[in-house]
Amino acid sequence: MIQSKNMIKTIGDKMILKGISLEIDGGESVAVLGPNGAGKSTWLKITAGLLKPTEGELFIAGKSFKKDHLNLKQLIGYLGHQSFLYDHYTPVENLTFFAKLYHLPDPGDKIHRLLDEVGLSFFKHEPVRSFSRGMIQRLAIARAILHDPEILLLDEPHTGLDQQAVQILNQVIQRKKKEGVTVVMATHDFPQVMSVCDRAVIIKAGRVKDDVSLQQKTADWLYDHYERQAVQ
User: Which residues does the UniProt record annotate as the domain ABC transporter (predicted)?
Assistant: First the structure.
């Protein structure tokens, strides 16, 4: 579903990605791990179409992203550090706006179901500027899955969430996995990785350091393995 070939990204005189080659099959749930500055967020943004690579190729569903990026972006839901929400709009108004961008017909019922799923039904007509960080993240989750993407890209999605919001997010991810959605999550949260991911890719200094299955593994094993890779 996702194929990154020799992905290089240079910003100014700094090379952020140094030849990332990575394949993720349809329906996989993959954690991307690495220290701050390793290139995780940059790779996710390139895959989401928010940045262009300096060199290398990206294929989504077997098609060149460079040649067909407008159509391929429709397959992707992205949840990053920015919510992309309008703070003077209500949740209903925000999701209605994004539904129009995705040309969704009659999205009203779906919007209300999503707001109920992320626990915001009581606040659906309140302006987003009055929301807490956790509430904004919940609404951003709804925005990311509004158009039923085949690929869900999550950049440190659990950061700043309370326990209830973490549980809501994990339930959304599990539901999407059951629907066959490909999930890629950059994170530092090892317990959450183990609860939702099947595989972990470790990136260090802009390169893929390791790629491991998480089947029959524990969070402690993953943490120890990650630490060993970090010092090599």
Answer: 2-230
